[in-house]
Design brief:
It is a single chain. The protein is mostly helical and about 190 residues long. Helices cover about 85% and strands about 0% of the residues. It contains four helices and no strands. The protein starts with 6 loop residues before the first helix and ends with a helix.
Length: about 190
Amino acid sequence: MRRRPNAFILLLLLLLGLYWGYQHYQTKQYSAAILPAYQTMNALQENLEAIYDLGDSDEQLLPGQIAECERIQNTLSELDAQLSETIPPTSGAAKIKETLTIALSELHAYSAAQAQYLNACMAASQKLKALASLGKQLDSSHASYSSLAEYTAAFKQAKAITSQLEEKKEAVSLIRTAFLSKTKKELDALWP
């Protein structure tokens, strides 16, 4: 003998299906609404990667690279402010917002570290030029004890600056690697 499904169970399943469908629809709507922020962030990340790839080899490009890093930071701050004003309607949308907020924060840290490194490169370049100038003065004249002491102090300072540059470069590399290896992949999975 076959039993007929209970009408209450069928109604419950229908309501659950409608609820899940509505949740999915709301999440998709929210995702579509913040897609421009994701696309802007991707463009900024590509700019930051171009700056990273350029490196510190051309001293004349450093001021422009630093300015671009600052522009990226400002734009990321604006995106973060816009995102914080949104209210995710579902838990899925809240996860999307959380992932995007984390990515914005990490990208901001990456940009700030890159700008600090490039600023340090400019300062180091100026110090090294001053050291070279001091060295030429020592070679061209009879070196006095005070000029030799000044050169030695400048050389020690340049050595310390070079060490700090390596630390800053390593910090940029670590932040970049962390962003690309985890957060970027999570973001890209949200918008395939």
